[in-house]
Amino acid sequence: MDNKAELVFMPTPGMGHIVSMVEFAKRLHDQDQRFSITFLLINPFHPPFYNLYVESLAASDTRFRYVHLPPPPPSPPSPPPEQLVHTSPEKNLSDFVESYKSHVGDAIVNHVLFSSPAMTRLAGLVVDFFYIPMIDIANEFTAST
Asked: Which one of 24, 50, 55, 71 is most buried, by most CB atoms within 10 A?
């Protein structure tokens, strides 16, 4: 029995990111159907139309799976506002991405590797530029990035 390899895509929250990544996945899959594709979605601040877009994708194109990750565990209390001035947006984004690493690993195990009767092979993790820290997760599973 020929098991498909799995590609996991992780777009950064935002319409421009998911639309372009879904289009890339469609073109890739049209060229080679030997793999299946799962999108791992982080939903911290999506407007309603983003979720409607994902729902319409899931309903209209069954080639791909969309897994919404749960929120990360609560973070430590924020510093006082006067100290927030000294934190950079890059640091905040980095902390945000780091807080999801365990959920990404769990989702790969539960929704990708062991989601069917036969164990699936993780072929690669396709991450958006802002999710480069997730490469550590791919390395844990010895997958390509």
From this structure: 50
